[in-house]
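diguanylate cyclase, pasting as requested.
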Amino acid sequence: MTARILVVDDIRTNIKVLEAKLTSEYYEVISASNGPEALEAAVIQKPDLILLDVMMPGMDGFEVCRRLKANPDTAHVPVIMVTALGDPEDRVQGLSAGADDFLTKPVDDTAMFARVRSLLRVKLMLDELRMRERTSASLGVISPPVPSLHEDYAAAQILLVEDNPRDQVRLQRMIEGQFRTEMTADGMDALNRARQTEYDSVVVSLSLQNPDGLRLCSQFRTTEETRNVPILLLVGPDDQKQLVKGLEIGVTDYVVRPIDRNEFIARLRAQVRRKRYQDRLRLHYQQSMEMAVTDPLTGLYNRRYMASHLATLLAQSASQHGTSVAIIDLDHFKQVNDTHGHPAGDDVLREVGNRIVRNIRGIDMACRYGGEEFVVLMPDTNLEASEVVANRLLNAIGGKPMQTRSAGEMTVTCSIGCTASLETDTADTLLKRADDALYEAKHGGRNRIVYRPS
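Structure tokens follow.
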């Protein structure tokens, strides 16, 4: 996996050393020698990851990281802070500023590349979601979310997987009151729980026996329901090889024993922030897709989606019955708006949409065609069979008064034009024939159905 990495250090020799190591692994390297340069390069050069020195004159690495995470253009870029400081308080300060990981000088090459690859995998997934978000935003559908350093951590659900009773007690005491926690000593129980509950993070002890910690992490990553949950691995000071393996199979972060409480909480909070940002991206994308294909007033599919779906039905139809189409137009609807106002008219349109949905078959699709017009697509349905659906719709819409919030009850009838497809039909020709039938129904007295033979 190639990527562009920004190296930030005020000592040129350090930059050169890291640049040589990274380019040998086919990464593209750009550099900055101070905080302001780093902030500018992060926006202009758009790196995939930043290796950021802590101790720099003027603006230190902590402040640079805070500013990177506060900028929507760079907030999603993973930051690994490189420091000679070994105090847990410094790691906590960096994690609180938004850093994704720490490397201590002198930097171990194996550890560095394992962390780089792990964070790049996460960014690759988030970039895919962000690209979809940008597409939605460009269509004016929905604004994309921005990562935040401020979350309601007390509501976050954490699953602790530890089979040592004494360590179980220690872990629960460490994060008591910080998160909502569950504890299990069995890996398979943890996996089953995570399949049913969406945890913000799962903490796994590397020393776990049933199954072993790394195997459980692997199972989390290969199971559909759990592959995206963040995993925090608890490792010993001599577990470097196993830690590297864990990062390669998808472990998100780690804490070295003996565990510093503040660092443990800070790392869990970082995982919660990333998980919730990832969840918001997915949710917004789903919402944007729904908004792109549905009518906001009635909740029915919109005209654009209906036309595309109809074209697909006609292209894929292998049935001799073909596809029938009914276009529904409300009679004298302009009078509803003119007499009772647009809020009453909107209530009517919503209720008509509801009545249509309740009175079509499971295979049928309803859409709002525009204004007071609706369309129902009936796959695998000839003209004779479509009469049953069309008559049911005519009676459902006009046979019972509709309740509006601003104008009370009113009765609204409709006219329907119905036709069935020929082998040579396109979506346009089929809709045109149904529209001609609707025109005939409107001019033939309204509150009626006209069937236009194929």
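Note for the archive: The domain at 145-289 is CATH 3.40.50.2300 (Rossmann fold).
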